[in-house]
Prior knowledge:
228 residues; mainly alpha; Rossmann fold; three-stranded parallel sheet; 3 strands
Amino acid sequence: MVGHRYTRTFLETAVASMNAGCNLELSYGMRNNVFMHIPQALAMGNITLQMLRDRVRPLFYTRMRLGEFDPPAMNPYSALDLSTVQSPEHRNLSLEAAVKSFVLLKNVRGTLPLRAQDLAGKRLAVVGPFADNPRVLFGDYAPVPEPQYIYTPRRGLETLPANVSFAAGCREPRCQWYSQAEVAAAAGAADVVVVCLGTGTDVEMEAKDRRDLSLPGRQLELLQDAVQ
């Protein structure tokens, strides 16, 4: 609220937030955050002890209901390990969720879906900075990626009965450095080309907006070269 000039100081913000019923602050990475000023607001009489208790009570009720204060032996989730998380059942569910989340904007001449039986012996090229970089496939507020459990487009396409080649063209989403020859060589020799472009948190995330909707850096050039 300070940034929006609704208040002038963190102390004023803490008081206004408490009075409005807010009981949770997200100030990641800030050593001196807004709600650290609550003791000062209490001492100055800007808020009451009863108000503070009223705000805190639902937070601890929720934490108790979630089992945060229970002994680990009482928490059934503490017994789960990667044999459960990475089980075939759960991996298949993840695949189903990924497939159902796609948005198909155009499908000229029924190109999609790519069918394994139609790709036998064909040459398939997967190009672009998002083709085989696990780190950039996750958006803001995502968990820390574990590369060994991530199927990049390249890794997934290599499960098909096709001769798959790969060329990043540029290694990162900003795509400042671009190898046209690398992309042209892979795409020019292929029957099917999959181009993987986008933004990622290197380019945009909360509090880091783009100035326009253009592809970053030289990604558009990469796409045009692949089409050509």
